[in-house]
Design brief:
By secondary structure, the protein is of the alpha/beta class. It is built from 18 helices and nine strands.
Length: 353
């Protein structure tokens, strides 16, 4: 398991100035470019340096191998918290969330060239930038509720702002999104074959206007989620998780296989995580980005003090038995007070402005 040594970070994040472009390549392909603290710090240092460099007018972010970025190094964070206590990974959350906030407010255009998996922390690196180009293998997900975690890295802000109730659907199910649906719902801003990514990078490095350098979008048709958008909007706009499930169950009885699958999926997720994620989606629409990041810092601190994250990682990544024993086991047993406790202020909170 890679740590946060400077040498590892230099290998795992390649930093290169190419003409007018600052180029960042996540280069940990054997771990699907999962982020550790050293990588986060190296990304931040590069972006800070280029912010002050007038010769760099755009940023290009890519991933080596078959993933853009599969998220944070969850197994490492789990092990660290198990060995040294729930606050042991605190430096990672503070650094990662501060990086997300920097990307959101960054004044120079950030172009993410995404082919393959983009999940969790990879979403935090790309979704808050202006340009998100989906290759043919683009695969987006925020699957955190399946491991007893929650949608973070700015999801509290971004997901509620997607069309209709699509963000709530993503948060509660963790389902995957292909390039056609990614474009249809605004997760990606255009599509291009991955074979064209190097040529796009060269045009950006040569100083072409960003839109011209990206070229015409080769958009695939919308996928199955766009076809199900009426069911998504009618069910996931309900006033509570229980009401969402009731609407999904009713739609399934009327013949919607999509609704039946979505309901079954939610019922396999951590009940606490699902309830917290639902609250995020309802509250996040009224938050600024810094407020959303502070909220997520509060939530992650409480999540690591609980049970389900460790159980979810055990069932998914350690024992791999796929049979997590959540506490509580049923959504009905998650109290409003338990959810609210995740959002309560903490002493010594960071600022993400």
């Amino acid at each position: 398991m890679a740590g946060d040594m400077a040498g590892d970070a230099e290998t795992h994040v390649l930093v290169e100035r190419r003409g007018t472009a600052g180029c960042l390549t996540l280069n940990r392909p054997q771990a699907l470019n999962a982020l550790d603290l050293g990588m986060v710090r190296r990304l931040r240092a590069a972006l800070d340096a280029w912010l002050a460099d007038p010769g760099v007018t755009r940023i290009v972010l890519r991933g080596a191998g078959r993933a853009f970025c599969a998220g944070g190094d969850i197994r490492h964070l789990h092990d660290e918290a198990r060995a040294r206590g729930p606050r042991a990974p605190d430096a990672f959350w503070r650094a990662e969330y501060a990086l997300n906030a920097l990307i959101h407010r960054y004044p120079k255009p950030i172009v993410s060239l995404i082919d393959g998996i983009v999940m969790g922390g990879g979403v935090g690196l790309s979704l808050h930038g202006a340009h998100r180009v989906a290759g043919e293998r683009y695969l987006f997900a925020m699957p955190e509720v399946g491991i007893g975690f929650f949608p973070d890295v700015g999801a509290t802000y971004a997901l509620p702002r997607l069309p209709g109730a699509f963000g709530t659907y993503l948060a509660l199910t963790g389902d995957r999104v292909g390039p056609g649906d990614g474009l249809a719902f605004g997760l990606a801003t255009r599509a291009a074959p991955a074979a064209a990514f190097e040529a796009i990078t060269e045009r950006l490095a040569a100083g072409e206007p960003v839109e011209a350098a990206l070229g015409e979008s080769e958009a695939p048709p919308p996928g199955p989620l766009h076809a199900a958008r009426e069911v998504i909007d009618s069910c996931f706009s309900a006033e509570s998780v229980a009401a969402v499930l009731a609407r999904l169950d009713a739609a399934a009885r009327e013949g919607s296989a999509f609704a039946g699958k979505a309901a079954a999926t939610i019922r396999t997720r951590s009940p606490t995580s699902v309830a917290v994620a639902f609250a995020q989606m309802r509250r996040g629409i009224a938050m600024s980005f810094p407020e959303a990041m502070l909220t997520e810092y509060r939530i992650v601190t409480r999540i690591l003090e609980g049970h389900d994250f460790y159980e979810g990682v055990r069932a998914t990544l350690i024992d791999k038995d796929g049979a997590p024993r959540w506490r509580p086991e049923r959504l009905e047993a998650v109290t409003a007070e338990a959810v609210e406790a995740h959002f309560a202020p903490l002493p010594d909170e960071p600022r993400f402005t």
